């Protein structure tokens, strides 16, 4: 009566779209004057098929909700004579019938086991046949043996055929058409084995080198697109800024921030919080002379603290961390902390533990098996506890602000935020005390570790590459001298120092990949299809080590940022702060801190390695990559 090939039947909706109009026609259901019995048939059929008729709802007349009495309900699906029942129905994309992956894998494994077992049994059967022949048993038993053998061989063939079909199905499912290339994912574990536990960044680099700017890895049954290359970054994060502005949600960041704050929030809430943070930081002097003065004051405290070491071996971590943290503290809390405040040092350490967790092995395991990991001890538990202490510390500051604030004269970010909680009418923007706490956690974490680690690398490189240090000092002496403080205006007169700061950031590459984003709709990047909901990992490392851009990408070479006349060379693809809507909101602040702290240190000290020691370039593992603990001598000049 109608033609219906195997492919069409496989596509259930397509099959229905073919068959239903014919069934309706043949039963006369398209006419108003239908018999009640036919209408009942129609109603029952339509109800039974409803789950598969999602696309048809739109073309269906609205249901009569008052259909509880008599036989009225049989007219639920009636329509005018001219209405063709399924005119608006469009065949959905022809995905094959989805089978739960776990079931599929289990079936595959079970079948492989059966086939292997069967091969062994097959040998036994063969031996049996030989035995039968050898023993010249009667014809009946020989006939039975042959029959058995044939049956079993048939079964074996069927099983092998099924295995091949399932394997082909797995292979076609595993990498949907036009998704970027990548290493082949194994059933259940995906590409877990492709990412080294000790050196995840090295592993991402290898994937990048093999597959290029856009590649796919699979974790936990989900595809994750690795994006790199300056052009690709711009295409995705700038030109399609709105599509890629949400953060991917995974177990660790859910636990760390519950989707609040600045770093891991998304959508309307994130947009409003970020806008507010940027404008408030600007009001309190970011990018202006007022903030420059407070950084210069802090750099004097920093130099005094180093001076007290009198050139003895010192690990610069605490001093630098305290100095940098004080800048963000004065913007957010309205005050700074002394360098010998051990409680504050502890809080900084706790904040760092929590901030780095997503990139550690404990964080990775937590993402894969959150329920189990919640019960197991480990670094993740320490980080969660430590975050709790940081939250308490911040909560105390918020309480103090609530008591002491003067509404007419907000002193800092917290005062302004408390004001916003009272005045903001947009409840979806979530200006709440809880969100305030998470925003401060993020400003504190993101604003401290990043700049501290960059300055630690700066100190280490100066000790390791003394000729570079000498040139910087010569320029500092020439432009600033020893009697006045540095200023941001000196930057244009100090191309070498400015180039060195850029090279420190490029070579140290403290954030090799930005926190993952998620595609908010189906899109295309570099010609590849990126389906809605896919996680995207922005790799900054290959961009800062691009061989086509930097002559010696794997060496510390300030020449990368100098032209042939020794003038500063601005490079468009130098993007340690990332690009697009989610790029670092602290870039201006960080650049100011780096220039003023670094030049102040170079003005007052010569940084030396300890005698007989070669400083290494090993890194810690985390969201930001700092140098492993090291000691230097800061000799006053
Ligand atoms: C050398 C110093 C710094 C570097 C290299 C750096 C780099 C970055 C990078 C690469 C991102 C991720 C961007 C993305 O997802 O595409 C980021 C985000 C962020 N940074 Fe920085 N950053 C630095 C300093 C700071 C400072 C001083 C602050 C303090 C205001 C800060 C606050 C933030 C925040 C709040 C985010 C999250 C933004 C969002 O998700 O919307 N950063 N930073």
UniProtKB/TrEMBL annotation:
Necessary cofactors: heme
Annotated GO biological process: organic acid metabolic process; xenobiotic metabolic process
Localization: Membrane
Domain of life: Eukaryota
Single GO cellular component term: membrane
Gene3D superfamilies: Cytochrome P450
Transmembrane helix recorded as keyword: yes
Entry's Gene Ontology molecular function annotations: heme binding; iron ion binding; oxidoreductase activity, acting on paired donors, with incorporation or reduction of molecular oxygen, reduced flavin or flavoprotein as one donor, and incorporation of one atom of oxygen
UniProt binding sites for heme: 584
Transmembrane segments: 102-125, 145-168
Pfam families assigned to the protein according to its UniProt record, in alphabetical order: p450
Keywords tagged on the record: Heme, Iron, Membrane, Metal-binding, Monooxygenase, Oxidoreductase, Transmembrane, Transmembrane helix
Family: Belongs to the cytochrome P450 family.
PANTHER family, sorted: CYTOCHROME P450 2J2 (PTHR24300:SF177), CYTOCHROME P450 508A4-RELATED (PTHR24300)
Protein name: Cytochrome P450 2J2-like
Organism (species): Astyanax mexicanus (Blind cave fish)
């Amino acid at each position: 009566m109608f033609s219906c090939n195997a492919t069409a039947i496989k596509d259930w909706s397509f099959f229905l779209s073919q068959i239903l109009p014919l069934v309706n026609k043949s039963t006369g259901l398209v006419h108003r004057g239908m018999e009640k019995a036919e209408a009942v048939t129609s109603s029952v059929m339509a109800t039974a098929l409803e789950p598969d008729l999602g696309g048809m709802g739109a073309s269906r007349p609205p249901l009569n909700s008052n259909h509880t009495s008599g036989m009225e309900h049989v007219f639920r699906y009636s329509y005018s004579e001219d209405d063709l029942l399924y005119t608006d129905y469009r065949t959905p994309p022809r995905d094959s019938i989805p089978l739960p992956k776990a079931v599929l894998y289990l079936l595959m494994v079970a079948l492989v086991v059966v086939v292997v077992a069967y091969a062994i049994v097959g040998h036994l059967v063969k031996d049996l046949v030989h035995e039968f022949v050898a023993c010249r048993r009667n014809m009946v038993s020989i006939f039975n043996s042959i029959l058995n053998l044939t049956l079993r061989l048939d079964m074996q063939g069927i099983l092998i055929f099924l295995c091949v079909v399932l394997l082909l199905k797995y292979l076609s499912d595993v990498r949907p058409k036009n998704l970027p290339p990548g290493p082949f994912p194994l059933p259940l574990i995906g590409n877990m084995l492709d990412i080294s536990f000790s050196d995840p960044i090295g592993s991402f680099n290898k994937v990048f080198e093999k597959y290029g700017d856009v590649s796919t890895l699979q974790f936990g049954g989900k595809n994750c697109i690795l994006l790199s290359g300056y052009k690709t970054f711009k295409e995705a994060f700038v030109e399609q800024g709105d599509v890629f502005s949400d953060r991917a949600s995974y177990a660790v960041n859910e636990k760390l921030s519950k989707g609040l704050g600045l770093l891991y929030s998304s959508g309307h809430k994130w947009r409003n919080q970020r806008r507010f943070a940027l404008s408030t930081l600007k009001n309190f002097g970011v990018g202006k002379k007022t903030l420059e003065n407070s950084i210069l004051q802090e750099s004097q405290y920093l130099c005094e603290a180093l001076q007290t070491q009198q050139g003895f071996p010192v690990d610069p971590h605490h001093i630098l961390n305290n100095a940098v943290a004080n800048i963000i503290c004065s913007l957010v809390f309205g005050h700074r902390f002394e360098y010998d405040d051990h409680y504050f040092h502890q809080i900084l350490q706790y904040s760092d533990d929590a901030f780095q967790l997503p990139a550690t092995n404990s964080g990775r395991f937590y993402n894969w098996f959150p329920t189990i990991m919640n019960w197991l001890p480990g670094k993740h538990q320490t980080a969660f506890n430590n975050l709790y202490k940081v939250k308490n510390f911040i909560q105390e500051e918020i309480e103090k602000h609530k008591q002491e604030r003067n509404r007419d004269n907000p002193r800092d970010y917290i005062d302004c935020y408390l004001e916003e909680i009272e005045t903001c009418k947009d409840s979806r923007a979530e200006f709440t005390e809880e969100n305030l706490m998470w925003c401060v956690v993020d400003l504190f974490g993101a604003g401290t570790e990043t700049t501290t680690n960059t300055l630690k690398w700066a100190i280490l490189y100066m000790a390791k590459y003394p000729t570079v240090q000498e040139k910087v000092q010569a320029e500092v002496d020439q432009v600033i001298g020893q009697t006045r403080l540095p200023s941001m205006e000196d930057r244009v007169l100090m191309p070498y120092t400015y180039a060195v700061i850029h090279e420190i950031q490029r070579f140290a590459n403290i954030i090799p990949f930005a926190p993952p984003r998620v595609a908010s709709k189906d899109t295309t990047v570099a010609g590849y299809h990126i389906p809605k909901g896919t996680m995207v990992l922005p790799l900054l490392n290959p961009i800062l080590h691009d061989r086509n851009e930097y002559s010696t990408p794997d060496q510390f070479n300030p020449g990368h940022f100098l032209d042939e006349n020794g003038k500063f060379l601005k490079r468009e693809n130098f993007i340690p702060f990332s690009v697009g809507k989610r790029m670092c909101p602290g870039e201006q602040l960080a650049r100011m801190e780096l220039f003023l702290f670094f030049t102040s240190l170079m003005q007052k000290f010569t940084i030396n390695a300890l005698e007989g020691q070669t400083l290494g370039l090993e890194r810690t593992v985390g969201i930001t990559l700092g140098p492993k603990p090291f000691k230097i001598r800061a000799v006053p000049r």
